[in-house]
Amino acid sequence: xxxxxxxxxxxxxxxxxxxxxxxxxxxxxxxxxxxxxxxxxxxxxxxxxxxxxxxxxxxxxxxxxxxxxxxxxxxxxxxxxxxxxxxxxxxxxxxxxxxxxxxxxxxxxxxxxxxxxxxxxxxxxxxxxxxxxxxxxxxxxxxxxxxxxxxxxxxxxxxxxxxxxxxxxxxxxxxxxxxxxxxxxxxxxxxxxxxxxxxxxxxxxxxxxxxxxxxxxxxxxxxxxxxxxxxxxxxxxxxxxxxxxxxxxxxxxxxxxxxxxxxxxxxxxxxxxxxxxxxxxxxxxxxxxxxxxxxxxxxxxxxxxxxxxxxxxxxxxxxxxxxxxxxxxxxxxxxxxxxxxxxxxxxxxxxxxxxxxxxxxxxxxxxxxxxxxxxxxxxxxxxxxxxxxxxxxxxxxxxxxxxxxxxxxxxxxxxxxxxxxxxxxxxxxxxxxxxxxxxxxxxxxxxxxxxxxxxxxxxxxx
Length: 462
Known about the structure:
Blueprint: H1 3-19, E1 26-39, E2 45-49, E3 54-57, E4 63-72, E5 74-79, E6 84-89, E7 94-100, E8 108-112, H2 115-131, H3 136-141, H4 144-169, H5 174-202, H6 232-247, H7 255-266, H8 270-287, H9 289-302, H10 306-319, E9 332-335, E10 340-342, E11 350-356, H11 361-376, E12 382-388, H12 393-403, E13 408-411, H13 419-423, E14 431-435, E15 441-443, H14 453-461
Parallel strand pairs: 1-7, 11-12, 12-13
Antiparallel strand pairs: 1-4, 2-3, 2-5, 5-6, 7-8, 9-10, 9-13, 11-14, 14-15
C-alpha cells in the first residue's frame, strides 16, 4: 500500500479514535508492576509521568520494584527528570526496565509486558529527531509552502516507520496502535504550530499564513483530558496557546496574562484547565514575578487540582520575599580588578542586574542588547551590574576583556552555589533584576535587554 494511502487510512482512524468514547484506554484499577535497574542516577528516585503520575523510589544500586493501581493504558514518560523514555503501560502489566541514564534513549532492555511496543518506542523517538534534517534557521526561514512539503514528508516518514516495524516484528497491540496514532497526530500538529512561532522569532515581520493554515487542528480535540495518555499532547497544548497569542490582535502586552484569560475562553474540560493554569503558574515563576503576583489570587480560586495547588502555593511562598517593594537581599562580590562591590553601598540609584555566565549561549546573546541599553542610559541615575556564575576566573576575565564589556562586572566564584542564586531563587540564566533606591526590589525577574519593553520600563523610573 502506498504511503499516502496508509496516511489517509491512519488519519481516518485518528478521527474515529479521537471522537469516540475511549473505553479501550480505561479499565477498573488493576495492580501494575514496574521493576528493574537504572544506573548512574544523581538522586535515588525515578518518575512516571502521564495521566497517572508518580514517584518511584530507587535503591542506591539503581534497583527498583514498585506495584501500584493503574486505571488508564497510556504511553507514559519514565526517567529521572532529565533523561527519559516513553513506555507503553496497561493496567495489570508487569514490565522490567534495565538501563543507564547516560544512554537511556538508546540502550534499554525491556522484559515482560509490551516488549515489542516499547522497543518500537525507543526507535521511534530517535526517528523523530533524525527525519528533520534542516537546521533551525533553514527550516523556519523557508516559505510556508516549502515548510508544508517538509512537514508532509515527515508525516509520511513516521507512517512508514510504523508500518515497516510491524511488517518485520508483528502487529501492535490494539490499544497501543490507537495511542500511537494519537501521539503521531499531536507530533504533526506540534511541528506545524512551531512554524509561525519560530518564524516570528527569526523574521519578525514575515508572518503571512494562508486562511487554511489551521486545518491540521481539526479533529485533534485539544479540550480532552484523555489526550494526556500520550506524551506529545502536553507540548502541543502549550504551543497552541502560544500560537493563539501570536496571531491575536489583542492589546494586552503581557503574554502570560493574555494566555491566562484565554484558557477559560478556549477550554471547558476542568482537568485540562487545571493543567494549563499550573503551567502558566510555572512559566510566571520562571520569568515574571510581577505577573505571578497579579495572577495568584485568581489561581487559588481557579485551580481545582489539590496537588497542583499545594505545590504551587509552596513555590510562591518561596519567592514572596522577592516581590515588588521588599528589601533586596544584599549582593557583594569582587569586580574584574579585585575591588569589592556591595549593593548596600548604593542606596540612591536604580540598578539593573544581569546574572549570567560565559558558557551560557542565551546569556551571551543578550550582551549586544545590554551594551546598547547601557549606552542609551549613559549619564542617567542607573547602574548596570553583571554578575557571572563562571567557576573559572581566567575564562571570565578573558571574555570581559575581549568583548570590552562596560558597566560593573562581578564574579560569583561559587557558581550555582553562590549566595545570589539562593537569595534570588535563580533556577536558570540569564536572569535580570531591577532594584530601586533604598535597595527596594522593583522586579526580581525583569525583562531581558532584548525585550522591547525594558527601555520604556527603565525610562519610567528615571
